Amino acid sequence: MEGNVRKVLSGVGFYGTLAVCLAIVGVCGWLLLSGGEEPAGQTQVTPQIPVSQPVEMPEKTVEQPVETLKPEPVVQEAASEPPAADPAPAAAEAPRLIVEPLRGEVLTAFSMEELVYNQTLGDWRTHDGVDIAADSGAAVLAACGGTVQAVTEDPLLGTTVVLAHDDGYQTTYANLQPHPDVAAGEEVSAGQIIGAVGSTAAAESDMPHLHFAVSRDGKAVNPGEFLES
């Protein structure tokens, strides 16, 4: 009995297996032809995939290379040489010293604008200096440092000494005793004795006195103004 069953199963098994395979192939073909439609009444839910918004990427800034400024070379000017020192610097000028040639009473004043009566000559004339009364033999001093320009015997003023000074000044000392203490060309200093009061002037008073006159560039100057300068 068991043997018969095996025979039947073995025969049936081959054809059964073949039938199953054909059925599977048919089902697959039908599914392909039908487009894979779902059975009626069933709704296919398609999951929604969120669409991400485009993210704006920042623009990449291209940095321009910074040009490095090279400092310009500084051209140093050659130091100017200091002026050459004067090998012989000028000496400081000593202040000009003015002294009174003689002190005494003024007998006749300076007058170049108004005429003055001259008792000795008995006339009216100008007077380019001052007559200073003094004892005969009184020392007469150089009013300012300078050079003896002349020593003369003037027919009207008597023994006369003329000194030349800076700035065109000249001083005149007249009615001196003969043979003054200085000679022409000699350098004298202010206050140095140049002679003595005498009575050699023919046009002056008989009273012993000094006739003192000052001029600048040949023009008579008031002796008082010269002594005060």
Provide structural commentary.
- The strands form 3 sheets. Strands 1, 4, 6, 7, 8, 9, 11 and 12 form an 8-stranded antiparallel beta sheet that branches.
- A hairpin with a 4-residue loop joins strand 7 and strand 8.
- This protein has 229 residues and is α+β, with helices and mostly antiparallel strands.
- The protein has helices at 2-33, 223-228; strands at 106-108, 111-118, 123-127, 129-133, 139-141, 146-154, 158-164, 169-176, 187-188, 193-196, 209-216, 219-221.
What's the overall average pLDDT, rounded?
77
> What share of the residues does DSSP label as strand, in percent?
25-35%
Characterize the largest beta sheet: strand count, sense, and whether it forms a barrel.
8 strands, antiparallel
Provide the helix percentage. 10-25%
Secondary structure tally, helices: 2
Distance between the first and last residues' Cα: 183 Å
Query: Uncertain runs with pLDDT below 50, 5 residues or more?
Result: 38-43
